[in-house]
Amino acid sequence: MKKALARFILSIAVSMALISCKEDDPQPDYASIIAGTYTGTVTTGSGATAGITTITKRSETRVDMDITAGSHSLTIPGIKVSSLEDNVYALSFSASGNSLAGEVEGNNLTYTLSSGTLDGTFVGSR
Fold first, then answer.
1. Alpha-carbon distance 99 to 120, whole Å?
2. In this structure, are residues 88 and 104 in contact, taking their beta carbons and an 8 Å threshold?
């Protein structure tokens, strides 16, 4: 009887350990998937110009973005990355009147940026 009770208690402890491990599973590392340098075009109200955007991993679901468009440069820290579907990732950022909304699909990056320094749409690839 004592052996059966000990086995029962041991099986409950093992089950609880396995269940708690599922909660500790790491998040998918979306930032590493989309990190890189994208070259393309920035379109603003005054026309189009060549642009470069470099995405650097900050955490699994946050990236920093360095943007160069013509003579303008801008760094945006802490952009949120989420998965929309296989190989498609959403980018979002909003703070004190500045916003960015975009998407990475495969090697293609598209986003719209609104800030005091640069307002426009970037389309490019890595």
1. 11
2. yes
Distance CA 76, CA 104 (A): 16
Contact (Cβ atoms closer than 8 angstroms) between residue 108 and residue 36: no
Enter the tokens of residue 62: 């946050």
pTM for the model: 0.78
**At residue 10, does pLDDT exceed 90?**
no
CA-CA distance, 93 to 66, in Å (whole number)? 14
Distance between CA atoms of 38 and 119, rounded to whole angstroms?
18
Tens of pLDDT along 50-88?
999 999 999 999 999 999 998 889 999 999 999 999 999
